[in-house]
Amino acid sequence: MKFSENWLRHHVPTQASRDELAATLTAIGLEVEEVTALGDSLDGVVVARIVSAQRHPEADRLQVCEVDTGNGMVQIVCGAPNARTGLVAPLAMVGAQLPGGIAIKAAKLRGVESFGMLCSAKELGVDPDASGLLELPADAPVGTPLATYLGLPDASIEIKLTPNRADCFSVRGIAFDVAAALGGNVIPLNAEPVPAQSDAAMKVVLDAGARVPRFAGRVIDNVDATVATPVWMAERLRRSGLRPISFLVDVTQYVMLELGQPMHAFDKDKLEGEVVVRPARAGESLALLDGRTVELSDDFLVVSDSHGGKGARAVALGGIMGGSETRVTDTTRNVFLEAAHWIPEAIIGRSRKLGMHTDAGHRFERGVDPQLPTIAVEYATRLILDIAGGVAGPLLDVTLPEHLHSPEPILLRRARLARVLGLTVADDEVVRIFTALGMAVVPQADGWQVTAPSRRFDIEREEDLIEEVARIHGYENIPTSTPSGALTLAVEPEGRLNELAVREQLAARGYYEAVNLAFIGNDVLQRWGMTADLVPLANPLSADLAVMRPSLLPGLIVALSHNRARQQERVRLFELGRTFRISAEAAARKDAPTETPTLSIVACGSAHAEQWGEPSRTLDFHDLKGDLDALIAWGGEPDRWAVHADGLPGWLHPGRSARVTRDGLTVGYLGALHPQLAKALDLGADVHVLELELDAVLARRLPRAQAVPRFPSVRRDIAVDVPEAVSWSEIEQVVRKAVGGQLKELRLFDRYSGKGVELGRKSLAMGLILQDASRTLTDDDADRNIREAVAALEMACKAKLRG
């Protein structure tokens, strides 16, 4: 938002200097990006008229001008291309000191004396235009100091606004903040209703529901559209970054900058029948003021007339830009002024969809005061009647009251304000701040009931009011205090591991933690065969990030592949994060997706880092199984875990993978990637993965103190011949169940297949560590346990005891 300093001071008188004003704006959250001083040194520069202009006798590009200064005639040699008889322009008299240190002296140019200098806007420091002399209106009073005539010195101030401060897209909106911060008051706006002088009116129909709940307008007949825009208005527009175009257009721009309400002026004679505000029809086209013709979809809104039928012809793109067919021109005699309230949801994104940006759209996207349309029409009407004449019809105000935003009172508690800010703000100061900001304040026993003005869409709750007090009272006035240092120690539940412990355990085993985005592309998931129960994003950042991840593994494998492509052959990565799934039934009910905390591991390359102590070998299934066993052991409940060779997903190798269960429920998978998937992902056969539900890993047995065993343990070793398909976890569960509490530990120390063992079978040798807490076990006790274990294995696993 760019505006004139003098224009702001017109609404909120203050003795603060320019630097103080800029510092105050930044301090209250309206960050000043640039301050451009205009006309700071124009003593000795007056309004002058060129009475005659003759070609210089010695230079084709110079002219010798006789100039009326209002206090006599002077001769000026000028090289400006637009210097001509009758032109009114600024004249720097001899002795003047222009911005930039230019001193004006009498001089001879090619033998002709010159007593001063006719100036361009750039030489005066009021505009960057240096193409010629600054042309002033023909009725400008000759002899008047230029600074007085143009309202100088001044400054163009540009501020950067946060999206929530849409009310400050106007000079008056900024004025309320300045008044509150500097202890002043905003001068009331003179927008008295203009009495109707005729019955001329347009019928307006609102056919867009809540998206356009208000439309104000007025017909003004017999307007002189050729009248020049007054200097004071044109200068305020220029200093706000807008070029004057024509009076009727400039009035609407001026009101938008001053009040914040975008407006549009139609040539009434080019409108037919009633005006209808409606959604655009798919494929409907509209020629805009900028010369483009756009094709619209049904999510746009348009203002239409009855040319070709009721609401048939679109004449303006709602909240963004007017149409060229009904624009005002120098031949316009009758005008229809329009000011509507378009809610942000109806405008957001529409300009970008057409590849354009307008001041009106920018404001409506962030929210415009719904009470402004009628005020803006009255204010613009008065300006037009005073400057261009005309006959005003009655004010038209069509509303849908049930859809108009109405601020609700908010209770600000005194104790809450003091607690959040860390200081006590006097009651009188709180009331002054809110009153200066245009809010209604009613004192309460425990605080204040505050109602924000309708322009303040950002005031919704008590915290917003506290923020207003803080920024106006001054953040620098809030005391800085050092924290006391008293820390509350969180009690970690003993029945659950800390995630940090898992991270440390994996880091100790040589893994690095990775953090990936929670989004992934559909094409990646299709390669993995993970196409069921997906959670698509309604507005993805890109096609590669269109789905919430159902697994951590695809993202980890991308990271692994990235490392391999950079000559890292041995890669160990893990990630803790959430995965997301939703069934079709849940999606139909619009339920929230299921979020599952998950732990995933990927590894490839050699089993151990390169060293001299042992030969290198490639990572295999059992290495990752060892990492799983270490995590299981950390929780202290290995007897509740098991691995199975059945029920594998399609992305795992069918012969080198396993399904992981806890208490009989599947909690994850382990193994090598399926060869077809590894090939599709351009990976080797040595990539192994592990994915587990994190809650199963974190659950652990409550630690209990136990006495040191008083009695010795007994070890018995047996070797059994079992079918190849029988897993060690099945054997372990059978033995533990058969022997019971006297089995303290079961160790597998050998596996053999080959000569002496039938094809399709294997020999497993295991050690049983037996111990009793109440007595020393005898040989008979140990032999009995072994017999029971062997019998159970023969029954459940078709095992044979080997000699």
Task: Offer a quick outline of the entry.
This protein is of the alpha+beta class and about 800 residues long. It has 23 helices and 41 strands. The strands form 11 sheets. It has a 7-stranded mixed sheet.
Give your account of this protein's structure.
The chain has 6 domains: 2-39 and 156-182, Phenylalanyl-tRNA Synthetase, Chain B, domain 1 (2-Layer Sandwich), CATH 3.30.56.10; 45-152, OB fold (Dihydrolipoamide Acetyltransferase, E2P), CATH 2.40.50.140; 204-403, Phenylalanyl-trna Synthetase, Chain B, domain 3 (Phenylalanyl-tRNA Synthetase, Chain B, domain 3); 410-476, Phenylalanyl-tRNA Synthetase, Chain B, domain 1 (2-Layer Sandwich); 499-698, Bira Bifunctional Protein, Domain 2 (BirA Bifunctional Protein, domain 2, 2-Layer Sandwich); 714-801, Ferrodoxin-fold anticodon-binding domain (Alpha-Beta Plaits), CATH 3.30.70.380. Helix content is 27%, strand content 27%. It has 23 helices and 41 strands. The strands form 11 sheets. A 7-stranded mixed β-sheet has the order 28-32-33-37-36-35-34. Strands 5-4-3-6-11 form a 5-stranded antiparallel β-sheet. A 5-stranded mixed β-sheet has the order 13-16-19-20-21, with no helix packed on it. A hairpin with a 5-residue loop joins strand 17 and strand 18 (293-295). Helix 1 (5-11) crosses helix 5 (171-182), helix 6 (231-239) crosses helix 7 (247-259) and helix 7 (247-259) runs antiparallel to helix 11 (372-388). The protein is elongated and about 135 Å long. The protein starts with a strand and ends with a strand. The model has no long low-confidence stretch (mean pLDDT 92).
